[in-house]
Structures are given as structure tokens and as C-alpha cells.
């Protein structure tokens, strides 16, 4: 005989749907089996459906239960029959409310009154008998849902905790009864972006001063973008106000899309700036700073500044508090930019702020391997500042080339060697030293050398140990902490003595590495 069918369960999808039942057939007897599904209702009503498929485990009665008597009981039973006998499932008894699973809500939409994220209403349509809804929503870039259960919502609900200028995904599910029945499937997703609100938070502003001449100085202001949660919309422009405090004269400049601003002001007077960010709804609170000489107070200069590589594209900067009472320090600012021998002011500036109890900072933003960075640590106290600087890199190797000697001149029995800097992309980190080599032409003896510390601005050096009327070959190399470069170009020079000058114009010879 066939095994007894198990776990009979029935469902009607939607108020206008039909009753369908499923069951588990049990072990296969390998005999032809017929299944009969029977439904009994009030007033001795009976429906029956047959399935002549041995592997049958689903039948749809094709009838619709209506809500006239939502508490009326219905009983379903399935019977399996083969040539050896029959077996019936346990009866499954249910009401209309037990088995009707509502269709998912549809026509979902959202409205923001007065374009405000704080006055947001979600609307949808449901089947008529729905009593409960559950709503779930999340920012489109999040995996976590916010869940809300509502009763008798009648197709609308106010949401109060949405963030401005954020795309959300919304879904809704429905149920007919508090305890009975099952939830509908989730609706199709609605995606909508919330309106902007005026920015919150304040810009992080930093600046550089550069001497132009006896009466003028250049001020370059820099600021960081607000975070998405602070901007609360698309930033349309930044407003910069520059003011001379004693005279009260103000100059305002609107900037679109840029996060820096440069102007020229007199070297006299006390100057202050205020910078704010604006979107379509308003402006952030302005960040106000007084322009001062950031390195003027020597007693505030941080001590023993060091910069060491810390993994891939990170540099750990450490320092000791200044000699002046360390408690006077209100904050440290660590600033870094790519080192360019010409002092290019267009090179992007990076900085971070550190509380006064910190004596180290890990810098990682815009750090590239094999690039040397000029790093400054500022200690700020009221309207005073002190600074110390150091060069650092996250990764280094020996330079790819040596300096190019461009001229050798004689001056009172010694010579002055001038050279061109190694291109930045060939330095491969921070240069520590230059070496100048020389030996007599056609000599097999070891060359003599002079090692000089690297300075950004230096491009010449005297040598006074050459013998008159002897032709020498000279060349240069550069060193990082990882090693020495190959030779630069060779130049020949013969020191004539004090009466004559030879300008070292023998043709260049390529050196052998």
C-alpha cells in the first residue's frame, strides 16, 4: 500500500485566488498511484480533485474562498491509492484567515512635503482586508534593513528617520490578521532619493603663506570636502571671506567646485578668513581662522621629528612636545606634500589634525611609493605657532640616475661645480647625499670623492683640492637610504691657476655605470 501522505498544507494567494494544496508523498512504491484531494466546508459542501500522476504532490481546487464567514472551518485531506490499497493523510483544518496569503502591495510611491526629508510619507495600495503591514527600507549602499510594523495603515505611513540626499530602497508586505495567516511576499522595490538639507558640520581649513616682496604676501587657503553626511546635498560653491581685522575691510569670493583659493594681501595688518560650503538649501557654519606666521614661535617648534615607512604607502611621523610648556599646545597639524625642487606651489597639500596629547600620526592619504614628501609638524597655541620639518618616503630604492653637471668654473685656485637636479620621477625616494668624484684623466687610480648633504635648493659646490694644469674627469652620483645611483655625465676640466680660467667646456662623456 502507498505510504501515508505527510505535511498537507493549503494556501490561497490573494483574496481573488484559488485554494491549492501541497503534500509529501513519502517513499516511492514503484506502483502506479492516484491521488485524490478532498475539501469539506460548512453546510456539508465538498470539493474533490484527482491527480493520476504517480509523482503528484500538488493540486489546485480551482475554487475561491470568500470572506463572508472568515472564521468558518474547512478541512482538507489527500488520499493515495495503488493496486495494493490506499492511505490518507491526517486532515488539515483551517479558516479563510488561515490560508489566504495577500498579494504583495503595489503602486508604491513616496512624497516629501515642502521638499523636506523630515516630512516624508510612503503610500501604497493593498487588498481590501489587509490589517497589518510591515515596511522595510535601507540606503541603497547598505545591507541592513530598517523594519517597521504598522496596523490599519490604510496604505500610508510617515517615516521620520530618513537621512537627507540619500537614495533609499523601500519594500512592503501585508497580512490579514494579527495572529492567523501568513505575510505576503515583499512588494517590488521602490527606489527614491531624499531631498537635500542645508549642510551641517564645518570645513577643515588650512593655509600657506608665501613671501612675495617687502610689502606683499601670498595666502593660499585649502579645505577638505565635507563628508556625505555633513554635506547633505550637492555642494554648489564655497564662500570665502577675507577680512583685515583692524580696519574691518572685507573681500568676499565665491568659488565653484574648487577646494582651494589663493590671493595676495599686504604684509601689514591682521587678517582673518572664513570659509563655508553651500548647497541648494543653505550654507554650513563658517570656519574662521586668523592668518598668522605658523613657524614664528621657535619655543613652540616640535622636537625630534622623524618620519619612517609603515607598510605600503604609509608614513609614521613622530615628534616630541616643544620646549615651551607642552600644556600650551592646543593641537598639532601634520602637513605633507610631494617634494619639488622648484618649490612648486601648485603641488597638492595634505594635512591632518592631531590632539595635543598625541606625539605621532600615520599619514596615508595621497602617499605614493618612491616619492619624497616634505613633512611639517606644527604646534598651535592661540595666535602663535611653531613648526619643524623633515623629509620622508613610504618606499625607496637607489636613484635611477645621477645629477647632470652643467658647468665647471674656476675661482681663485678652486673650482665651482654646478648641476641640474635629478628629475623627481628618477629620485626614487628622499635623497640624502650627493657625491662628487674626480680623478686624473687616463689614470687607473681610485677616484677621490666629496660627499655633501642633500639640500633642496643647492645646485653647486666648490672643490679646492685639484692640482693646476692637470686634466681631471669629474662626475656625480646621488644616494637615498637604499643606495647610490649610477654615474651622471662626465666632464673634463683643467685648472689653469690664478692667471687663466678654463670654463670646463670639454664635451660630455657618458660614464660607465
From TrEMBL:
Coiled coil: none
One GO cellular component term noted in the UniProt record for this chain: plasma membrane
Entry similarity comment: Belongs to the type I cytokine receptor family. Type 2 subfamily.
Name of the molecule in the record: Interleukin-12 receptor subunit beta-2
Gene3D superfamilies: Immunoglobulins (2.60.40.10)
Main location: membrane
PROSITE patterns, per the entry: FN3, HEMATOPO_REC_L_F2
InterPro entries: FN3_dom, FN3_sf, Hematopoietin_rcpt_Gp130_CS, Ig-like_fold, Type1_Cytokine_Rcpt_Type2
Record keywords, A-Z: Disulfide bond, Glycoprotein, Membrane, Phosphoprotein, Receptor, Repeat, Signal, Transmembrane, Transmembrane helix
GO terms of molecular function: cytokine receptor activity
Compartment annotation: Membrane
Species of the source: Pan paniscus (Pygmy chimpanzee)
Amino acid at each position: 500500500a502507498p505510504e501515508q501522505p505527510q505535511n498537507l498544507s493549503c494556501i490561497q494567494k490573494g483574496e481573488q485566488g484559488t485554494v491549492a494544496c501541497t503534500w509529501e508523498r513519502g517513499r516511492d512504491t514503484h506502483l502506479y498511484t492516484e491521488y485524490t484531494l478532498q475539501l469539506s466546508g460548512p453546510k456539508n459542501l465538498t470539493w474533490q480533485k484527482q491527480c493520476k500522476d504517480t509523482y503528484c504532490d500538488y493540486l489546485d481546487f480551482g475554487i475561491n474562498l470568500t470572506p463572508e464567514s472568515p472564521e468558518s472551518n474547512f478541512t482538507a485531506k489527500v488520499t493515495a491509492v495503488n493496486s495494493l490499497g490506499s492511505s490518507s493523510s491526517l486532515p488539515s483544518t483551517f479558516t479563510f484567515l488561515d490560508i489566504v496569503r495577500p498579494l504583495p502591495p503595489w503602486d508604491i510611491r513616496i512624497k516629501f512635503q515642502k521638499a523636506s526629508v523630515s516630512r516624508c510619507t510612503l503610500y501604497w495600495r493593498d487588498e481590501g482586508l489587509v490589517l497589518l503591514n510591515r515596511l522595510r527600507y535601507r540606503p541603497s549602499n547598505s545591507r541592513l534593513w530598517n523594519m517597521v510594523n504598522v496596523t490599519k495603515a490604510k496604505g500610508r505611513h510617515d517615516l521620520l528617520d530618513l537621512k537627507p540626499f540619500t537614495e533609499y530602497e523601500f519594500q512592503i508586505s501585508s497580512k490579514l490578521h494579527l495572529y492567523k495567516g501568513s505575510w505576503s511576499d515583499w512588494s517590488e522595490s521602490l527606489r527614491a532619493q531624499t531631498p537635500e538639507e542645508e549642510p551641517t558640520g564645518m570645513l577643515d581649513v588650512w593655509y600657506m603663506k608665501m613671501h612675495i616682496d617687502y610689502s606683499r604676501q601670498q595666502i593660499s587657503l585649502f579645505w577638505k570636502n565635507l563628508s556625505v553626511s555633513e554635506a547633505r546635498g550637492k555642494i554648489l560653491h564655497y564662500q570665502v571671506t577675507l577680512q583685515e581685522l583692524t580696519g574691518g575691510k572685507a573681500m568676499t569670493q565665491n568659488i565653484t567646485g574648487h577646494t582651494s583659493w589663493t590671493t595676495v594681501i599686504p604684509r601689514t595688518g591682521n587678517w582673518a578668513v572664513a570659509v563655508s560650503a553651500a548647497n541648494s538649501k543653505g550654507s554650513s557654519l563658517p570656519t574662521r581662522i586668523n592668518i598668522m606666521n605658523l613657524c614664528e614661535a621657535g619655543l613652540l617648534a616640535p622636537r625630534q621629528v622623524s618620519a619612517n615607512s609603515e607598510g605600503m604607502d604609509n608614513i609614521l611621523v613622530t615628534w616630541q612636545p616643544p620646549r615651551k610648556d607642552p600644556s600650551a599646545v592646543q593641537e598639532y597639524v601634520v602637513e605633507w606634500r610631494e617634494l619639488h625642487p622648484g618649490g612648486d606651489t601648485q603641488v597638492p597639500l595634505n594635512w591632518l589634525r592631531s590632539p595635543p596629547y598625541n606625539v605621532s600620526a600615520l599619514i596615508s592619504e595621497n602617499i605614493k611609493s618612491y616619492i619624497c614628501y616634505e613633512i611639517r609638524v606644527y604646534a598651535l597655541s592661540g595666535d602663535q605657532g611653531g613648526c619643524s620639518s623633515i623629509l620622508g618616503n613610504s618606499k625607496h630604492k637607489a636613484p635611477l640616475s645621477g645629477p647632470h653637471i652643467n658647468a665647471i668654473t674656476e675661482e681663485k685656485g678652486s673650482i665651482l661645480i654646478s648641476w641640474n637636479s635629478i628629475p623627481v620621477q628618477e629620485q626614487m625616494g628622499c635623497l640624502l647625499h650627493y657625491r662628487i668624484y674626480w680623478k686624473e684623466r687616463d689614470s687607473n687610480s681610485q677616484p677621490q670623492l666629496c660627499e655633501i648633504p642633500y639640500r633642496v635648493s643647492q645646485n653647486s659646490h666648490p672643490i679646492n683640492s685639484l692640482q693646476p694644469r692637470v686634466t681631471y674627469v669629474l662626475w656625480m652620483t646621488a644616494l637615498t637610504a637604499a643606495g647610490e645611483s649610477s654615474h651622471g655625465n662626465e666632464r673634463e676640466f683643467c685648472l689653469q691657476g690664478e692667471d687663466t680660467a678654463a670654463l670646463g667646456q670639454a664635451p660630455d662623456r657618458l660614464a660607465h655605470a
